[in-house]
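Side project, low priority. Logging it here so it doesn't get lost.
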Amino acid sequence: MNHTTSSSRRLIYLLLLLVIAASVALSIVMEHTAHNIRRNETPLLNSTIPQMRYLGDFESALLRYQLALDKRFTDSITPDRFQFLESMGRTELDATIAQLRPSLGDGPELGALRDGYQSIVRLTPEFERNVDRNPAAARAVLIKMNEEVKLLRAHVDDLQQDVENAIYDNGTMANRAIGWITGLVHVFDVLALVTSVFLFYHVRARVRMEDELSHQARHDPLTGLAHRRSFEARLAALPAVPHVVVLGTIDRFSRIIGGFGHAFGDRIMVGLAARIRAAAERSGGEVFRLDGANFAILYRMSCEDEAFRQALSSLRDEVRNPYDCEGHEIYTTLSLGAVTFPLHGATPHTLLRNADAALQAARKAGGDRLVVYSQQLNAEAGERLDMESLLRHAVERNELELHYQPQQALLDGGLIGFEALLRWRRHGKLISPAEFIPLAEESGLIVAIGNWVLEEACRQISVWQAETGQRVVVAVNISPRQFAAPGFLAHIEDLLATTHVDPSCLELEITESVMVEDAESAIALLHRLRALGLKLAIDDFGTGYSSLAYLSRFPIHKLKIDQSFVRNMHAVSEQGAIVQATIGLGHSLGLTVIAEGVESETQRAMLSNWRCDEIQGYYYSRPLPAASALNFLEGSLQLQAA
């Protein structure tokens, strides 16, 4: 585009230079031609054309003189009258000779005229003497004088013809000059027309380009929707009537990109943007793309209006429809957060903050839903920010501690180990893991906290082994984010080397979600952990991304049945069937199966009948602080010794 623009600009400059050069050249030629015409016309007007008039006057005077002679010969006038006319004729002839001198000069033409009429005048006395006495002699003189007049008139006619030829030649030259100028004017006009057309085309193209740049400056280049700055400007200019601001995000869109690539994701995004725009505009909405998979929609209504509910329902239904792209059927949903202007904020900043709080609430609730803003959301968001700030300092302030929940073997009822469970004690009060673990996951603090848990578990294993002389197995939950963090394996290796803990005493519990991003890398890492001598278990089996193909390749020792299945397995037959199937699957793969959340004798008996290997839950023991866990351990050892 830049090369084309530069070429067009150079062509415009060249045409403009040609037009300027042609204009200057035309001006010079016209001035030169006009000067030549003026130079040729000046003598024509000043001498040549008057010469013709003076020659006519001379000829008229000569004829009147001849007429006077004829009248005297025929006695038509008296001698006195003839003398008067003859004197006047000579005077008039002298006057015309004087008038012709500026144009003819004193050359032979003027001399011939003057000599011719003077020869006539010299014969006049002889004519006068004989006119009365000897008419024959007078007639001979008159004939001679008429011959002189005829010759003189012929000479005058020649001079007049010369004048006419000069006028004609000058006119021809002027016509040629005017024709040359006219041709130049036509050439200049054509050149100016071509330049004007090209300039018009270029200006029009420039206007189109500026319009396109202006559109691009206000719109997202991928989807063609107005972008964030346009959205914020639109919010700043809202009239004082109710509007609904909706922020939305396409749920789990990163999985589409991770599975099929960014180019595929862009094509999906274009199609989804068109759907969202069409659905929103049917209800009078304006759609903006903020960034990534995030959109904003502006409706001229209130959140309480039934029309708004219908509009959002139609929008979500439209997005839920499967999208067929390159042979892949893609299913998508929307998480939406809505606020009402000006009820929930009068400025763009406030509206966006509150709408985002509602959107985050929708995402935390699992997505595919609409959450309308309330002040409680901001309060919760503020509390989460405060909690995150406090959690960042929990390790350095020694506020974290581990509690240990015993695990029992169903075969003999003996203790097989503990699961280390993280607790946060702040100002003497324990904060529920359900409150801070998701926050740690979301903020990334789980990596540092998880490392601390591993270090504390290894330290506690060393302490218990020193005090009891027995091997104690401790299971530690590993977050998917911690598992995928750079340096996780190196940290485990350093920890084992520095604490000298038997690797078989440390059991790492991972969830199936580690397979979502990069299953092959996860499998390779598990093999390296297994090579260190660590025990590996799948935690919360059946609640996540389950794949028997991957499960068969995992170098694990144990399957852990999630408590959500155990809790109601005696009352819900389907859940009991799942537990039985999981136990059978684990045994068929050569794995140990442990059920968590066992709280009653009924549950324990059912699991024992189904040949489950181990249990964990309140029925056997609640999670215990380290000192209480040591007492539990020592009591179990005494029972085993007895």
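Brief comment: The chain has 20 helices and 16 strands.
Revisit when time allows.
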